[in-house]
Each structure stands twice: as structure tokens, then as C-alpha cells.
């Protein structure tokens, strides 16, 4: 006999684990299925730490979602009785007119968020771990900090199980087939019926969502940890987490020494190298190490001790580098949550709520119109027009 559920969630990384938790907490009969064991090394939701910040430089329209995400992270901590979110402040460093600096300032101003501007001299006194060039500055978002991804994902799954969700691990879903009455979900183990399905399969999303085949691009991301030369100035209460604009070279991110491995740094999107999600992540190579060693020696000299670890992980980029959270076109029973272009983890706690809303109510009061299939198509059309002109 085929087991029947209200909602099936396929993929239990960040987005799927939060979705099963929100659904089960509402008393919805939910099954969650993951091909592996969540927060595994081929997912995008492991590696100790993720940045969270409120004055979003990318676009001020993300701020209301972030405000809700902060509330939901604190609610998760309260239920788990565990620390998931730690406030260290986040420094956004660069030239005054760089997108990271000017965009953070603009977001903070528009939403009346507290922030501080620090010039090169003020940075040297206050946060001596960082080396700034003349003319560079930092905007401090005092409400920024870092999240613990593994604690969050496992926490959401544990809460979901406690609230009655059925969770299957090591089971790969091979097909989802919507019809007038529900959706059939098939795997090598069996098949299930649900009224709605949420697809949150990270870098594998295009396998179950054909509309994303051309547009969801998994790429290689590398991060490295260093034992600091000066362990005093790199402690979390002396060194905020940071983003740094490097002009044409893109941007870098990093964290203070929050664990035994020390400081963690990475270059956002690294070398933009496409990867096959069904192959193991390509190993870290000399070019990767040289890039990150060079950055840390130049920009964080106090932290430039010994590199103790470096790993390859994966981002999945959409064309606009935004998110996609919507019903599949023409399929009101299928909800899609993209892996969020390398900056989605901080939103996990609100995306879980949104996915539960979409599955159960057919819509949400939270502002997600910018993350629709229609918005993605419109971005692509505008990009095509720009390329022609
Ligand atoms: C190195 C790195 C640093 C990052 N830094 C930040 C940061 O500082 N701040 C921030 O906000 N964001 C950051 N991000 C982005 C953020 O972590 C991701 O957006 C987010 O974790 C994506 O989660 P997900 O649930 O979509 O995907 P995943 O965590 O990859 O989960 C997808 C799951 O689906 C499962 N699955 C796939 N196919 C199937 C199938 N057919 N059947 C069943 N299960 C399936 C997989 O096994 C996997 O567990 C970073 C990402 C990386 C990699």
C-alpha cells in the first residue's frame, strides 16, 4: 500500500529541514526524504559557520525577510535550547563607492538599522586584525554574526521528528508526478502519495525541476581555515565576521577564530568553476590555496598563520544570483526552493516558514515576489535585450 501524506519534502539540507520542521509544528502530516544524511559533505549546508547580516548590501528588499529570519532563528534556539546564532557584528570593507560598502549603508539607512562607519585609522585601533588600504573604509553592521549550519539543520530535523514527521535518509527520489488529486513520489525504495510536494534538492534541483536545467548552475567553492599568528586580535569579540570588496577580483568573506581550526576565509563564488553534482567535489589544489593564502597574508596579516584545513563545497547559482521560491509553473502541487546562489543560509529559518505557507495556504504574507519563476524569466529577457543593444 502507498503511504499517504499531506506534504512530502524532497531534500533535507538547510531549506528542506526547516520546511519539515515548520510543517510538522503546524500538525501537518509530513514526510521528508534525503538521498544522503543531511549536512553531508556534498551538500551546501556544512562547514561550521555561515554569515548573517541585516543591512543587506545586495538589495534592501531582502531586509524584511531577514528581520523575520532573525526572529525565527531565536525561536529555533529557544526550542532547541542550543546556540545557533552568535552576534559578532559584520564588517563590510572596501572603497566607499564599492557595492558592499555603499549597498550596506543604503540598506541600513532605508530600514533605519543601526550601523557605524570606520575609516582606516579607526579600524586599526578598533579591529587590528584587518589591514585596510588608504581610502578604504568599513561599515559595521552590529547585528551581524554567524550561524552554526550543522546545529541548525540537525536541530530542525530533530524538532520535526519530535513533532511527528516521518524522515527517510539514504533514499534518492527519482520522480515526482503531480495529478489532479495529489503527487506520486518515487524512489528505489518505494512510492508515496502527498497532496503537495516541496523540492529543495540543492545542487541537484534541476533533476526534479526541468525548468531549471538551463539556469541552476552548481559551482565549486573553496574555504580554508588558518591558525592565527595573533590569537588575541582574532577572537570573536575582537574580530567581527566580515565581507571584503576586492574590486574586479570580487569579494571575500571570513569569520573570526570560533572553533579549534581558527579563522575561516573564502572568495565568494571562488573561480566560478562549474561542477557535476553527481561527482564528488573536486579536491582543493595549489591554485586554490595560493588564492586564499595570498588574501589572508595581505588583508588579515594577524591571522596569516598556518593553513590547517581547506575544503571544496558547492554553490548553486541562478542567473540573477537571487533566490527562487515559487510553485513550479503550471503545477500548483509542486513548490520549489532553490539553493539560493551562495547566500541563502541566513534565510533558512524564514524560507522554512515560507515553504510551509506555500504548501498549505497556496501563498505567503512574506515578500517573495522577486523570487518567482516569472521574475527569473524577466531577468533573463532583460539580460538578452542588454546583450543585443
Ligand atoms: C562554502 C559555502 C559558504 C556559504 N556561506 C554562506 C554564508 O556565509 N551565508 C549564507 O547565508 N549562505 C551561505 N552559503 C549558502 C548556503 O549555505 C546555501 O544557500 C544553503 O545551504 C543551501 O541549502 P539547500 O537546502 O538548498 O541545499 P543542500 O544543503 O545542498 O541540501 C539539498 C539536499 O537535497 C538532497 N537531495 C538532492 N537530490 C535528492 C533527491 N533526488 N532525493 C532526495 N534527496 C535529494 C541532498 O542530499 C541534500 O542533503 C554558503 C554556501 C557554501 C557552500
UniProtKB/TrEMBL annotation:
Superkingdom classification of source: Bacteria
Cofactor(s) named in the record: FAD
Assigned keywords, A-Z: FAD, Flavoprotein, Oxidoreductase
Lineage: Bacteria, Pseudomonadati, Pseudomonadota, Alphaproteobacteria, Hyphomicrobiales
SUPFAM superfamilies reported for this sequence: FAD-linked reductases, C-terminal domain, FAD/NAD(P)-binding domain
Domain (FAD dependent oxidoreductase): residue spans on this chain: 6-358
Record flagged with keyword Flavoprotein: yes
Protein name as it appears in the record: Sarcosine oxidase
EC number: 1.5.3.1
Species of origin: Rhizobium leucaenae
Any one GO molecular-function label of the UniProt entry: flavin adenine dinucleotide binding
Amino acid at each position: 500500500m502507498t503511504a499517504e501524506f499531506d506534504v512530502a519534502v524532497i531534500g533535507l539540507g538547510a531549506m528542506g529541514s526547516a520546511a519539515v520542521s515548520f510543517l510538522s509544528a503546524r500538525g501537518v502530516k509530513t514526510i521528508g526524504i534525503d538521498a544522503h544524511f543531511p549536512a553531508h559533505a556534498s551538500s551546501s549546508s556544512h562547514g561550521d559557520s555561515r554569515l548573517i547580516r541585516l543591512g543587506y548590501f545586495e538589495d534592501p528588499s531582502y531586509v524584511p525577510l531577514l528581520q523575520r529570519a532573525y526572529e525565527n532563528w531565536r525561536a529555533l534556539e529557544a526550542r532547541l535550547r542550543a546556540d545557533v546564532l552568535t552576534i559578532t557584528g559584520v564588517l563590510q570593507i572596501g572603497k566607499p563607492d564599492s557595492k558592499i560598502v555603499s549597498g550596506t549603508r543604503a540598506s541600513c539607512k532605508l530600514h533605519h538599522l543601526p550601523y557605524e562607519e570606520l575609516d582606516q585609522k579607526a579600524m586599526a585601533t578598533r579591529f587590528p586584525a584587518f589591514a585596510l588600504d588608504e581610502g578604504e573604509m568599513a561599515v559595521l553592521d552590529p547585528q551581524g554574526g554567524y550561524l552554526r549550519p550543522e546545529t541548525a539543520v540537525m536541530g530542525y530535523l530533530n524538532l520535526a521528528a519530535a513533532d511527528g514527521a516521518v524522515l527517510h535518509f539514504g533514499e534518492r527520489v527519482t520522480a515526482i508526478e503531480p495529478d489532479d488529486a495529489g503527487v506520486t513520489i518515487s524512489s528505489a525504495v518505494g512510492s508515496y502519495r502527498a497532496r503537495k510536494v516541496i523540492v529543495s534538492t540543492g545542487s541537484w534541483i534541476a533533476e526534479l525541476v526541468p525548468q531549471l536545467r538551463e539556469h541552476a548552475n552548481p559551482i565549486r567553492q573553496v574555504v580554508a581555515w588558518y591558525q592565527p599568528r595573533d590569537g588575541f586580535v582574532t577572537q570573536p569579540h575582537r574580530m567581527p565576521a566580515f565581507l571584503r570588496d576586492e574590486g574586479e577580483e570580487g569579494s571575500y568573506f571570513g569569520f573570526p577564530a570560533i572553533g579549534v581550526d581558527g579563522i575561516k576565509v573564502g572568495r565568494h563564488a571562488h573561480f566560478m568553476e562549474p561542477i557535476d553534482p553527481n561527482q564528488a567535489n573536486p579536491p582543493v589544489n595549489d591554485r586554490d590555496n595560493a588564492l586564499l593564502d595570498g588574501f589572508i597574508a595581505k588583508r588579515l596579516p594577524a591571522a596569516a598563520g598556518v593553513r590547517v584545513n581547506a575544503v571544496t563545497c558547492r554553490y548553486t547559482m541562478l542567473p540573477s544570483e537571487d533566490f527562487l521560491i515559487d510553485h513550479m509553473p503550471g503545477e500548483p502541487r509542486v513548490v520549489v526552493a532553490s539553493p539560493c546562489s551562495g547566500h541563502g543560509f541566513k534565510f533558512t529559518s524564514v524560507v522554512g516558514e515560507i515553504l510551509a505557507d506555500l504548501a498549505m495556504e497556496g501563498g505567503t504574507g512574506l515578500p517573495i515576489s522577486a523570487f518567482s519563476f516569472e521574475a527569473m524569466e524577466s531577468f533573463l529577457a532583460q539580460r538578452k535585450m542588454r546583450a543585443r543593444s
